[in-house]
Write a structure and sequence with these properties.
The chain has four helices and seven strands; from the N terminus they run αββαβββαββα. By secondary structure, the protein is of the alpha+beta class. The chain has a five-stranded antiparallel β-sheet with strand order 2-5-4-7-6. A two-stranded antiparallel ribbon has the order 1-3. Strand 6 and strand 7 form a beta hairpin. The termini are far apart.
């Protein structure tokens, strides 16, 4: 066997055994009113470098807002350290690293009527979380 033939066999064998990196799959949505609505968008393939599925749930007096996205482990872990649980509401970030691992709701559940001020607070907190996660 010649050197060029041997080299060709080696290249073909190595290329057949190397599997390309596969992207993490996460559910994504912004400010969905329910976990089911959020997951209804279906999963997405995360871009390179995004190794974590992040779920942000903001709850305030009976109303939950779900935001799910592809993130990095560092950003998600930082946000998870800022989880807040108060009598009138909460902000919770959860992180996971398996395909479709953010399918469950993973957040607070509060049941009572919500006023306009509470709705605006939830909207502002959701925008803050999304803005923070993208930078």
């Amino acid at each position: 066997m010649t050197f060029s033939t041997l080299l060709l066999v080696l290249i073909v064998t190595m290329s057949a055994t190397v599997t390309p990196a596969r992207a993490l799959q996460c559910f994504t949505c912004i400010a969905a009113r329910s976990n089911e609505n959020c997951n209804g968008n279906g999963p997405v393939n995360c871009t390179e470098g995004m190794d974590t599925c992040q779920t942000n749930v903001i709850g305030a007096i009976g109303f939950n807002t779900f935001t799910k996205l592809c993130s990095t482990s560092g950003v998600c872990a930082s946000l998870a350290l800022t989880n807040i649980d108060l009598v009138v509401g909460s902000v919770r970030t959860t992180c996971c690293t398996e395909d479709l691992c953010n399918a469950s709701r993973g957040g607070p559940s509060l049941h009572a009527p919500l006023g306009l001020a509470g709705s605006l607070l939830i909207l502002l907190l959701t925008l803050l979380i999304v803005a923070t996660a993208t930078f």
